[in-house]
Amino acid sequence: MPELPEVETVLRTLQAQLQYPKIKKCEVFYDRLIHGCTVSKFQALVEGQSITDYHRHGKFLILELDDYYFISHLRMEGKYYIQSKNEAYDQKHVHAIFTFQNDMQLRYHDTRKFGRFYLYKKNENLYEQEAFLHIGKDVFDPLLQADYLYKIFHHRKITLKQALLNQSYMAGIGNIYADEICFALKYHPQTKVYRLTKKDFSTLLFETRRILSEAIASGGTTIRSYTSSLEVSGRFQLQLNVHMRKGEKCFMCGSTIVKTVVGGRGTYYCPSCQKRK
DNA sequence: CAGTTCGCCTGGGGGC
DNA sequence: TGCCCCCAGGCGAACT
């Protein structure tokens, strides 16, 4: 489940490993991967383009090409592999291959086919394009401030967890970190978001950035173990306080971590540390 | 606007 | 060992 830190790790790894090569060939084997144009058009437009820069917005990976932005959303299980052309691969789950001039390949692997690719001309405003229509500011955008969040959420009846997961105001948080952020705030994930004060939103932003930064730093340390068949999934080993810890002891108070469903998502919390406001 | 449910997908786990 | 069913979950769409 790549969230912002994993996407950032993938981005940094790709940038370090690939740098700025020219795409000799582009092959897409799964039609629905591409949104906004046909597969054949996508392939034709990408071929001959060089990667000129790497960006990220929320959970979107943005590869800047000569004339286009190539956008990749990994959704649940998207991964990239950098391998040489003659190295074998999992044909069932590799849905796109970019071949560079040195015959190295960037291979997109996605077991459940939820991931998506988009391609936009650089002379169009990226944030007016379909992929970003309902995507808010990146979590690390300095323009994203507590006052803004308070204004948006202080009269909405959704839960804290749902607010964190909603990408249209603040982009980058997924199910794992939403739980971890609620824990850091010591609020029950079902706390109604209109109960939060400006100060709460200020803490929320601080804790969110702290947790995601630590996850990025941690991802940065695990990607050292490169091999020729590097799996660039952005996996990392960060100590999680609540997520996936059902039945285990809370590190803070020793109570048993509980799992429930909030907004249709599996949600973990410590019933003792986290209270509804 | 809020909430619920479904569809997209496939592997893995539980139940038998 | 095998088979069926359900679940996981990001996210948009459809419906109440």
Secondary structure: elements and pairs:
Blueprint: H1 4-18, E1 23-28, H2 39-46, E2 51-57, E3 60-65, E4 68-73, E5 79-84, E6 94-100, E7 104-109, E8 116-121, E9 137-138, H3 146-153, H4 160-165, E10 170-171, H5 175-185, H6 198-222, E11 230-232, E12 258-262, E13 265-269
Parallel strand pairs: 9-10
Antiparallel strand pairs: 1-6, 2-3, 3-4, 4-8, 5-7, 5-11, 6-7, 12-13
Helix pairs in contact: 1-6, 3-6, 5-6
This protein binds a DNA duplex (16 and 16 nucleotides) through loops.
Description:
The chain is an alpha+beta fold and 277 residues long. The model is unreliable at 220-230 (pLDDT under 50). It is 26% helix and 24% strand. The strands form four sheets. It has a five-stranded antiparallel β-sheet with strand order 1-6-7-5-11. It binds a DNA duplex (16 and 16 nucleotides) through loops.
